[in-house]
Design a protein that fits this description.
- It is a single chain.
- α1 crosses α7 (about 195-215), α4 (about 145-150) crosses α7 (about 195-215) and α6 (about 175-185) crosses α7 (about 195-215).
- This protein is of the alpha+beta class and about 280 residues long.
- It has helices at about 5-20, 40-45, 125-130, 145-150, 160-165, 175-185, 195-215, and strands at about 25-30, 50-60, 60-65, 70-75, 80-85, 95-100, 105-110, 115-120, 135, 170, 260-265, 265-270.
- It binds a DNA duplex (16 and 16 nucleotides) through loops.
DNA sequence: AACGATCCCTGTTGGC
DNA sequence: TGCCAACAGGGATCGT
């Protein structure tokens, strides 16, 4: 599933092709992809003939600045990926949004389950969107452990749920939340407010190490609807996961058995022997 | 305000 | 072997 490392890997892969290029055509094959656009008819109109100035990211949101002050937002959802190919390449199934650049390259958003979306926001619309509610970016703006501890203070929800709340910290999803908690030796159901300051220090370090490590391997491609890099390669972090998807397997740290438990309607994988 | 549940969607998987 | 229900999950929304 695309989480911060996968989105950042995508950003790095598409930035050079997008920046300085002009958008010549925009095709939307599935209207559902525009459900976050206040007026869906605005999307193509605002994108066409604009030059991409820069490509950024906040949490799992990919954001490109256009020279008309529009912010082009892409969220990969759970099955979305970007394909960067010559414009005459054959269309694969579920190529829901196709952005053609004047350089002869297509930016194609392929998303079978359509949990992802695109939008072209004015500055005011961006301010009104949920993007303005995002917490600090877990990679580029990770809070210090004292601040992280403060974000969790007084909260009764499970730490796992709080790590998934993008308003608290932006970027972690189900895979990396589990990986982070395993590295920090914290059980996922613990109330956020019960996380001690020393644990918050471990948690901060775990977030940084997990994300840095995953980024080095190009993210995680799971076996089903594999996330792929824009050039079609797989992300190889899947072989290095310590908790996620490892139900019944040995904990690589203590030799205990990883279990699967549903927390907040989401699968959580963790080691009861070394995560307290 | 905080918390928890539900919904959206479809390719894949597992059980019968 | 073939069919179909269950499953996966990010974020919005709603009820408590």
């Amino acid at each position: 599933m695309p989480e911060l490392p996968e989105v950042e890997t995508t950003r790095r892969s598409v930035a050079a092709a997008l920046e300085g290029s002009r958008i010549s055509q925009v095709g939307v094959a599935r209207d559902r992809m525009l459900r976050r656009q206040p007026n869906p008819a605005d999307f193509v109109r605002r994108m066409r003939n604009q030059e991409v100035v820069g490509v950024g990211r906040h949490g799992k949101f990919l954001m490109a600045n256009l020279d008309n002050d529009i912010t082009w937002v892409t969220h990969l959802g759970m099955s979305g990926r970007i394909s960067l190919v010559p414009s005459d390449a054959p269309l694969v199934a579920h190529s829901n949004v196709v952005v053609t650049l004047d350089s002869g390259i297509d930016f194609r958003f392929v998303d079978p389950r359509t949990f992802g979306f695109v939008a072209a926001y004015t500055p005011d619309e961006l301010e009104e969107s949920s993007i303005s509610q995002l917490g600090r970016d877990a990679l580029t703006d990770l809070p210090r452990s004292r601040q992280l501890h403060g974000l969790l203070a007084g909260r009764s929800a499970p730490i796992k749920a709080l790590l998934l709340d993008q308003r608290i910290l932006a970027g972690l999803g189900n895979i990396y939340a589990d990986e982070t908690l395993h590295r920090a030796k914290i059980a996922p159901h613990r109330p956020g407010g019960a996380v001690a300051s020393t644990e918050a220090t471990a948690l901060r370090r775990a977030i940084k190490e997990t994300l840095d490590h995953a980024l080095r391997y190009g993210g995680t491609s799971l076996d089903d609807l594999a996330y792929l890099l824009p050039d079609g390669r797989t992300g190889d972090y899947v072989d290095r996961l310590r908790a996620y998807g490892r139900e019944g397997e040995r904990c690589r740290r203590c030799g205990g058995t990883i279990i699967r438990e549903v927390i907040r309607q989401r699968s959580s994988f963790w080691c009861p022997q070394c995560q307290q």
